[in-house]
């Protein structure tokens, strides 16, 4: 465990996937635009922003509402899932500095979890492109009863790692994900590509991903708990 002087130990690091560690949002841009076209319309920029960090069914519903289309939400969600899986299978790049952050945490012996709203079929496409064992546990959006912004996914990850959520740091990039991690009791570090999109932090500490270090995470946790 790593801790700054006088602070609680950093028991685990919990990472969101899309937009936080991996530059997958452009792939979602494509699949969402394709879904809108399949439904006979074009997705607005505002609706694209609304669905960031959301679960698949809600995303399909919001897209249909935006287009004014009446269609089966489950069918639209299934179509979107398969189209996104096809794109993920072609390769999902790391965000700059993201891999080094995860690897530095692991070198310190701190347990890691991937906590995502994406379905397992998408997550498995990403994991297949990584070194085995990079994450000690993975919690997917279709493996919880209540997806983000509910705290269940983060609470589940902490429980699996036998960590106190209050001594865990969660890295996120969306308002929904931040709300979920905060509700679970975690210290939340927001690392959005567009810092202005989370200017007030929504309760998280906003920092550039390339400046994240284990010592900085431990210090932020110590400052909160000290």
List keywords for this structure.
2 domains, HAD-like_sf, HAD_sf, HAD family phosphatase, DNA polymerase, domain 1, PGP-like_dom2, 226 residues, 6 strands, alpha/beta, Rossmann fold, six-stranded parallel beta sheet
Helix content: 40-55%
The number of E-state strands comes to: 6
Mean pLDDT: 92
Could you give a short account of the major beta sheet? Answer: 6 strands, parallel
The fold-level CATH name of the largest domain is Rossmann fold
Polypeptide structure, described:
The protein is of the alpha/beta class and 226 residues long. The chain folds into 2 domains: 12-23 and 93-225, 3-Layer(aba) Sandwich (Rossmann fold), CATH 3.40.50; 25-89, DNA polymerase, domain 1 (Orthogonal Bundle). 43% of the residues lie in helices and 10% in strands. The chain has 9 helices and 6 strands; from the N terminus they run βαααααβαβαβαββα. It has helices at 25-38, 45-50, 56-67, 73-89, 98-107, 120-127, 152-160, 175-184, 214-225; strands at residues 12-15, 112-115, 137-139, 168-172, 187-190, 205-206. The protein has a 6-stranded parallel β-sheet, with helices on both faces. The radius of gyration is 17 Å and the shape is elongated. The mean pLDDT is 92.
């Amino acid at each position: 465990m790593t801790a700054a002087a006088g602070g609680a130990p950093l028991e685990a690091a919990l990472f969101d996937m899309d937009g936080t560690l991996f530059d997958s949002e452009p792939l979602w841009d494509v699949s969402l635009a394709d879904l809108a076209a399949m439904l006979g319309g074009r997705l607005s920029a505002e609706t694209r922003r609304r669905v960031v960090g959301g679960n698949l069914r809600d995303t399909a519903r919001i897209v249909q509402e935006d287009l004014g289309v009446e269609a089966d939400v489950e069918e639209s969600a299934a179509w979107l899932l398969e189209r996104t899986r096809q794109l993920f299978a072609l390769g999902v790049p790391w965000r700059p500095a993201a891999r080094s952050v995860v690897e530095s945490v692991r070198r310190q012996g701190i347990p890691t979890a991937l906590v995502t709203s994406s379905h397992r079929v998408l997550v498995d496409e990403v994991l297949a492109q990584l070194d085995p064992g990079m994450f000690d546990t993975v919690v997917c959006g279709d493996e919880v009863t209540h997806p983000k912004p509910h705290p269940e996914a983060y609470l589940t990850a902490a429980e699996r790692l036998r960590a106190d959520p209050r001594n865990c740091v969660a890295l996120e990039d969306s308002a929904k994900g931040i709300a979920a991690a905060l509700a679970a009791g975690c210290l939340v570090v927001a690392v959005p590509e567009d810092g202005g999109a989370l200017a007030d932090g929504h309760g998280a500490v906003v920092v550039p991903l390339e400046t994240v270090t284990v010592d900085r995470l431990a210090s932020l946790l110590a400052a909160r708990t000290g």
